[in-house]
Design goal:
With about 350 residues, the protein is α/β, with parallel strands linked by helices. The chain is built from 13 helices and 13 strands. The chain has helices at about 15-25, 40-45, 70-90, 105-110, 130-135, 170-180, 200-210, 245-250, 260-270, 290-300, 310-325, 325-335, 340-355; strands spanning about 5, 30-35, 55, 95, 115-120, 140, 155-160, 185-190, 215-220, 235-240, 255-260, 275, 300-305. The strands form two sheets. The protein has a seven-stranded parallel sheet with strand order 3-2-1-4-5-6-7, with helices on both faces. α10 links the parallel β12 and β13 (about 300-305). α3 crosses α4 and α6 (about 170-180) crosses α8 (about 245-250). It is elongated and about 60 Å long.
């Protein structure tokens, strides 16, 4: 039986692509072990599906001053030692890393044992953790054509992002029933990210008087961001977080308004949903969402609104224009070749586990 170690953590975006690969790996007979942080979000997500999980020490490598910069390198060194022990005991044929700082010691430990490693970069430009891992990787998968120029040519593979199969199995009528909405009006699904977005939430709610005569709105606003003053608003439904039923809400949606995290927009692409992206501003991030969003706009998949320029008027115009031209957006998404990520990545894993790629 071939063995694989999956790693990645810190945010859901560093875990969900691994979750998407697991059913195919199990079907092929792989024995799987997951290495993540002691108590990160990845631990619960992986243990919930019965995959053996090993936690290691994890430190964040920052580009800015923080008192933790003095202690975190020791956590990384400790994590490297723990990863060496786990890999020596489990003896995997291949390692697949989705990134995040917990993955760095795992990838370095795999290099020590000459275990081939495949890493996946979700964003347009590699983050710091993956920059540290790329020299130790055999292959580097990516989501965007523009990313190829940032990667070693002999390692780079344009794959897209693995999408959970269950997300593609939603039922529109089930989604409408869940949200108590009508089939007679189009549905806008608003997603502000796993932690919610005050900017997106505020903009959407201020626009409701103009939207609700023609649309219905399902708003996933993030934990702690429900607004009880809108509880009885006809045609507007809000949730803090949605897990299993999300596939049905996606199926019910005619248009999506979202942040531009790489995994989220790849899910939107796979579902062929016309969308308006409001990327996280450069002031609050390293600017990766802005690059992601504009790549999708350039490929004809999305309409983009910069957060700094967001107003009620241009958000309303973006929504109505995108909905009006929805057939054009759907056609472009159907033409995309980034729709077979799971099979492409599984083939790479097979090649590396058998032939050391």
């Amino acid at each position: 039986m071939r063995k694989i170690v999956l790693t990645g953590g810190g945010t859901a975006g560093h875990v969900t692509p691994n979750l998407a690969l697991i059913p195919s790996l199990l079907e092929l007979g792989y024995e799987i072990r997951y290495i993540g942080s002691y108590e990160g979000i990845e631990k619960k997500l992986i243990q919930n599906i019965g995959i053996p999980y090993s936690g290691i020490s994890s430190g964040k490598l920052r580009r800015y001053f923080d008192i933790k910069n003095f202690s975190d390198p020791f956590r990384v060194v400790k994590g490297y030692g723990e990863a060496l022990r786990i890999l020596k005991e489990f003896r995997p044929d291949v390692v697949f890393s989705k990134g995040g700082f917990v993955a760095v010691p795992v990838v370095l430990a795999a290099k020590h044992y000459h275990i081939p490693t495949i890493i996946h970069e979700s964003d347009m430009t590699p983050g710091l953790a993956n920059k540290l891992c790329i020299p130790s990787a055999k292959k580097v998968c990516c989501n965007f054509p523009e990313t190829l120029r940032y990667l070693p040519e002999e390692k780079a593979v344009l794959t897209g992002s693995p999408i959970r199969a269950e997300l593609l199995k939603g039922d529109r009528l089930s989604g409408l029933r869940l949200a108590s909405l009508s089939a007679s009006k189009p549905v806008i699904l608003v997603i502000g990210g796993s932690l919610g977005s005050v900017t997106v939430n505020t903009a959407v709610r201020s626009l409701l008087p103009r939207l609700l005569p023609d649309y219905q709105v399902v708003h996933i606003c993030g934990k702690g961001h429900l607004d009880e003053s809108f509880t009885d608003t006809n045609g507007y439904v809000q949730y803090e977080y949605v897990n299993e039923p999300l596939k049905h809400l996606f199926a019910a949606a005619d248009l999506v308004v979202s942040r531009a995290g790489a995994n989220s927009i790849c899910e939107i692409l796979a579902l062929r949903k016309p969308n308006v992206l409001i990327p996280l501003s450069a002031a609050a991030s390293r600017g990766d969402q802005i690059l992601n969003a504009h790549s999708f706009a350039n490929q004809g998949f999305s309409t983009v609104l910069e957060e700094e320029a967001l107003t009620d008027d241009n958000l309303y115009q973006a929504i109505t224009s995108t909905y009006t031209n929805r057939v054009s957006f759907i056609r472009k998404m159907e033409e995309s070749h980034l729709n077979n990520a799971i099979s492409t990545i599984i083939n790479l894993i097979q090649e590396c586990s058998v032939h050391d790629c």
